[in-house]
Structures are given as structure tokens and as C-alpha cells.
Amino acid sequence: MATTAGSSPWGHSPSYRWVVPPARRVGAVAAAALLAATATTACSGDDERPDSGPLTAQKLDWKSCLAPSPLQGADSGRPEPLPDGTDWECAQLTAPLDWAKPDGERIGIAVIRAEAKDQDRRIGSLVFNFGGPGASGVRTLPLAAQEKYEKLRTRYDLVSFDPRGVGASSPVRCVDDKTLDDLRAIDTSPDDAAEKKAALTAARKTTEACEKNSGTVLPHVHTADAARDMDLLRHVLGDRKLNYLGFSYGTELGAVYAHQFPKNVGRVVFDAVVDPTEDPVQATLGQADGFQRALDNFLEDCAEDGAPCPVGADPQQGVTRITELLDRLDDEPLPTTDGRELTSSLALSGIISALYSQESWTYLKEGLQEAQELKTGNLLLALSDVLAGRDEKGRYSNIQAANTAIVCADEKPRYTTEDVEARLPEFRKASPVFGESLAWGMLQCTDWPVAGEAERLDVTAKGSAPIVVVGTTGDPATPYEGARRMADGLGEGVGIEVTNRGEGHGAYGSRNCVTGVVDAYLLDGKLPADGQVCR
């Protein structure tokens, strides 16, 4: 199950499981050492409520998309038309707040689409989820489609949505932007009683704010609820089967959908796959190991790059120097141009942010060089802001609040400080850089007002069409081993594993072999062999 970042002080250190085009976003950051928000899109206002009526009989009222809301994660204008001039359209799907009471209170689910180019050969809709949990699909799809999905659009309408609790779909709200700035700066690996008390107090107050501001929606943001919404969307779009491309946490959502609605599965692909067999502790340990491996690979590349590596000539020396840097920042944060300071926790999340994609390694190298030589923290802070969903005006998307709400609704275990302290040696062994902070992140759901559903995912999907499952060997956020376990969990003849030998979180659109395999299945129905390897 997804063990990822939230809005508590523990929340920003564990990684999100989401996939966005990192080079474009981080490249804009590097240019000015500030986060430049990417032009994306939005649908209707955050609090608009749709009229009641038969859910499956509704027709979507497609209109030109509005500029994005800050909660969706951008501060720019409407999305640019696609290369052939096709405009993006937005609508609002009506769904029940509580699927156990389908005739009760309703909510709106923000949806976006771009119509297929070849209407005569159109297969139907291809629905995307980009992970998180908490990433806005309405925001992310136009950003990614310009570079990656034009071939898919020859035969599919490209469709995405903001899952319930996210962006423009009854968004979870917790604390204001200034408070969130302060929370992100708190030490997420406390090493004395005062630091521990400060973090626990802040976490408790954040949870209280989430309950006060979003108490109505918190019990209804389970992944299973989002899967029900997705099946309603399939029906309203007029598709007999769901065709779906899910990334990162989106693989968890897709697996839950396949478990609930196996007969409705069409052509489905999972990329950057969540391990369904792990409990939250195992998942978090897996991420600690995954990010440590990614950091080691970065450090090896950095040392071989020709120019001197700012943290040493070999990976072990690099780990030591990064650890020393983080220790120094714990006592003496670095100044930045926007008035905030780069603390140890912010630097750590900046490093995590850059490890999501090999394309971002150059910015990590520059950020570490700036911190070591110039004694300023602009680029590492900007990288951290990318991960947290903070724009250059200091406004946050609600990815952190939504992430916490969805994770805590899904995951049953609740951990104590004693649980964490008992596990610290195990986490330190998994990662000397990320282990402690990730271990303390297990307290994310400790005082959450909604009980979690389960310890592990049930992804059995007997009777489903085949699902292609892509795992990348150097994936830091969803380690490679989970792909085989997901394929096995889906069932014999359902899960078809494809291995991508490479670095980064997600392979489609950035690796030619994987992109070709996925396109062949989605566009032509050609299944790869189970166990196929892309290099």
C-alpha cells in the first residue's frame, strides 16, 4: 500500500509515488534556482456541488478548461492546444459522497479530455492516473501529453480526473500555506526530546486542522471509492471496458479497480508499480532501500562525469559527505534568496525530489555544489518545493493533505513512537541517508480521525483481461521487486510483467523499448511475453 508524503511534519520526507515530466519542471527551477510552476489546467470551482439525478444517466457538459487553481498545483493559464490544434475540454462528473448511500449527498469529480485524432479508428477513452496519491490528473495530463501521448491519441480520447479529495474534486484542506512552510522545515528525524516533542505537537495540530476543515470528506477518500468513481466515469464516457494507464500510486488504484470490476477491464497498463504484498513498514523500508540505491547510482555517475563531483570521488565518500551536510543543516540552516532557510529536512526532500528521474541528476549535482561551496540553499530548496507542490508565489497544491487523507483511509496500522524507535536500526541499515526520516514518517496516520481499511492490498482479478505491469530496476519510489509481486497477485494469465533495466520512477514515454511495448498493447492489442526485458 502507498506509504507516502502528507501535510504533517513527518509527511514531506517519505516520497510521493507520482510521475510527472521531471526534466521540464526541474529545468525551470534550475534556471533561476526558484520553482517555476508549469502551465496547466483546471475545471470548475473547488466547492461547486452538482445537481442530483441518476448517476449513470448523466451526460458530461464539456467546456473549455479554466486556468488552474492553486490547489491543483499551478499558477499559469489555460493549457496550450495539442500540436494539431485540438483544445482541452473539462467537465464535472457527479458521484455520491458515500458510495454506501448512492442517493445521498453528491460531489463533483473534475475531468479533462482531448479527443482522438482518428475518429474512424477510435478505440474509446484512455484514462490516466499519475499517482500520489494526491496528484491532479486534470493538471498533469496536458503537461505530459504534449511530449508523450500523441501516438496514443491517434485512437484514444485522452482522459484524466482529479480523484476525490484532490485538486478540484472536493479537495482535502488542512493548514494554510504559511503554516505548511513552517511544517516542512521541522526536523523529521528528531534526535533529542525537544525536537521529538515539537514534531509530535505539530503533527497533532495538523491532524486537528484536517478534521476541522475537511471532516465531511475524510471518511470517503479510500482508493476503493476512487475506483468506484472511475467505473462510473467509464460508463458515462460510453466505454464498455476501462482502458487505463496508471503510474505509481495509479497502479494501486488500477489494481483495486481490477479487483472490484474484473469484467470491466479493457487494455490496462501499470508503470512504476506499487508492491501489493507489503504492509506500511515493509513498504517504507523498501523505499528507504530504493532511494539509497538511486543515490548510490547518482553518486557513481557523479564521480565518473568528468567534472569533479561536489561530494567526493566515490559513492561511499559521497554518502558520508551528504550525511555530514544534513547534520550541519540541522544546527545551521543555509540562507536562500526568498527568505526561507534550507533546513536538514528540506534538503533531504530536495535530494529525494531529484532522484525521481535520471534527467534531474544534474540539478542535484548543482544543488549539492551550491550548498557545499557557496553556502546557500536555493536549488535544493527549489527541488524540495517541486516535491511538495509549492509554487513560486508560496501557494501549495493540496497534494500533501490529500496524500495523507487517502493513505490513512486505506492503511489500517497505526504506529507509536515506540514502534518507530524499535525499528530505527533496521531503517538506518537500509539507508544511512534516508532511513531515519522515513521511519519517523510511519507516524503519519497515528492520530488520524478515520480508521484505515486494511494492512495489505487484495489485487486478485480473476476474469480480468491481461494487465501489462512495467517495473524499472532503478526505481527509487516503487522498487522493482514489486512489479513481479503485482503481476503474480493479479492472477495467472492476468499480470504480464515487463522489466525496464534503467533508472528513474516510471518508464513510459522516456524509454523507447517500454514505450513501444505499451503502445503495441494499447493501440493494437499485442501483448508482450510475460518476463520481457527492455534494456
Characteristics of this structure?
disordered N terminus, 16 helices, two-stranded antiparallel ribbon, single chain, alpha/beta, 10-stranded mixed beta sheet, 535 residues
Concise synopsis of the structure shown:
This protein is of the alpha/beta class and 535 residues long. It has 16 helices and 14 strands. 40% of the residues lie in helices and 13% in strands.
Layout of helices and strands:
Elements: E1 17-18, H1 22-32, E2 63-64, E3 89-96, E4 106-114, E5 124-129, E6 131-132, H2 137-148, E7 156-161, H3 177-185, H4 193-214, H5 223-237, E8 242-247, H6 249-260, E9 265-271, H7 280-303, H8 315-331, E10 334-335, E11 341-342, H9 344-355, H10 361-374, H11 378-388, H12 399-410, H13 417-430, H14 435-440, E12 467-474, H15 481-490, E13 495-503, H16 512-524, E14 532-534
Parallel strand pairs: 5-7, 5-8, 8-9, 9-12, 12-13, 13-14
Antiparallel strand pairs: 1-6, 2-3, 3-4, 4-7, 10-11
Helix pairs in contact: 1-11, 5-6, 7-8, 8-9, 9-11, 10-11
Shape: globular
Strand content: 5-15%
State the order of secondary-structure elements, H for helix, E for strand: EHEEEEEHEHHHEHEHHEEHHHHHHEHEHE
The number of helical runs is 16
Q: Mean pLDDT across all residues, rounded?
A: 89
Major β-sheet annotation: 10 strands, mixed
- Distance separating the two termini: 28 Å
Helical content class: 40-55%
